[in-house]
Amino acid sequence: MAREQLGVLSALDSAKTQWYHFTAIIIAGMGFFTDAYDLFCIPNVTKLLGRIYYTHPDSLKPGTLPPNVSAAVNGVALCGTLAGQLFFGWLGDKMGRKKVYGLTLALMVFSSLASGLSFGHSAKGTIATLCFFRFWLGFGIGGDYPLSATIMSEYANKKTRGAFIASVFAMQGFGILAGGIVSLVVSTAFDHAYKAPAYKVDAAASLVPEADYVWRIILMFGAVPAGLTYYWRMKMPETARYTALVAKNAKQAAQDMSMVLQVEIEAEQEKVEKIGVREQNSFGLFSKEFLRRHGLHLLGTTSTWFLLDIAYYSSNLFQKDIYSSIGWLPPAEEMNAIHEVFKVARATTLIALCGTVPGYWFTVAFIDIVGRFAIQIMGFFFMTVFMFALALPYHHWTKKENRVGFLVMYAMTFFFANFGPNSTTFVVPAEIFPARLRSTCHGISSAAGKAGAIIGAFGFLYASQSKDPKKRDAGYPAGIGMKNTLILLAVVNCLGIFFTFLVPEANGKSLEEMSGENEEDEGGDSVEAQASSTRTVPV
After folding, report:
1. N or C: fewer beta carbons within 10 Å in the chain?
2. pTM beyond 0.90, yes or no
């Protein structure tokens, strides 16, 4: 049987959608805009980095990043993100969401600027400096995952909570789109200002000295949106759920939310203290009680996010390689260095515009209508279908007349990733765990996702290499080829369907109903009933 909810939390759950909801979405969402921009703008410039630092004078083809360097440049930010998710997720539960929130943004701003200012006397020195700062950029980005999701879930009302959290995550789509647009604008401006022939016409002249500014400007622009929202992050009050349920300060929680909601809220200190001493509100992360009540939930959120990110990041970070393999991008020697940036950015922008961005907002529109479970199952299912449809007749898609069909199918995989598990895996961990462990558990879940992303980023790089030495990138061993790699990704997506059944449906329920924080403790019956009921998934 449920206990009576704290007045301040009931007020939040039943609040009508107000201006402060949209303010919170924008403040939290701009962090994700920056996250996506910084993580996904790097594929637009890696080919340019290869030309600048690894071109051999007598080579018939322009230089490319060696395998280990390419893996480091693409993957080091993901390693930082994983570490940041675990650290800041834990810190958000220990110190409070607000105290840590500004720190992650400041770290992103500094590291974005520093990445563009990477220096060195040699190629190795410059790339090493770039990787160092991109690790710390990733560390800051990692903190934004658990903190933004937790803050938005704790501010939102019960009716539209899913849409609000998904809206924060949907800003990723605009960040990916902005990465492409900024790359297009910068490369177009430099290409017009500094005319250069194609590499095969004049290898030396195809790379103008000013090309070194192109990648630096693109990377540094990521600091702009983050910097613009720093002040407003610092002005946000701490969430009432942290203040009341974790810090045990009912007066401060009521005071903060009275200002936010523009209503009078009574401070209920006695009720807060009673809730805090109950056994089901005091167990830790590594306790048997947590394992019994939330062990399967945590396995579900970590496994689904892990499997999703293997497919999602491998496809996203290496779009340029997929486009080259089907012949949508011209051979590198037929372009100058800056024009190649333009061609890669144009392709990624088109995919983002047609598949990535709409997918996020379809989730926002439908998540509180059909629920998290249905969207996640549907997304994994269609990702599996479209990956197999790309992989099995792969030779058919490589023919020139079929390239448009390939791109449509490829865009649909991104659409159903975002109108599917890429959004729901972010939303659900912020809804189903107790307030004192919410940020930590979201950090663990998202870190599992980044572990999958690292496997996807590093593994795809090698696995997708052709068995034919003539079609292989310089320095790479033989892989299983693009066709078999896509088949493997389809199987990974299929596994995600089955692990989704471990994740509970939170649609229409309060955070305390999902976590059991307001359950009566009479003989343990109701607690046991709650634990089993939250494992029931509507099909």
Report:
1. C
2. no
